[in-house]
Amino acid sequence: MTALLTVIHVIVCVLLILAVLMQSGKGGGLAAAVGGGSSSSMLGGRAATTFLSKVTTYLASSFLVICLLLAVLYDDDAAVPRSATERILETQGAPFAAPFDAAPENAADADESASAIPQ
Asked: Which residue of 27, 33, 66, 118 lies most exposed, with the fewest beta carbons within 10 A?
């Protein structure tokens, strides 16, 4: 399902780019370059601008809807760990931290704790 939506999404993206480029703006755009800039040409008239505006609106709307659908379909937080650190902790487990006695109360405890540390 997501593969099909992704393919449709790419097609809509390419068509949206072409529709935006075909519209004439202040500089004339690609429509003026292809149509020659005259009002009698196929892409240079007012009807073509209205048609391209509608196509752009529909393509942009479908782009947004497909983006939202793909985001909902790909949102699977419970199944996949969010970071590499979480994946390592899941496979190896949390590292064991030995308790640390900050200050022994007497000298005998200090000697025992010093001998317990591996060399």
From this structure: 118
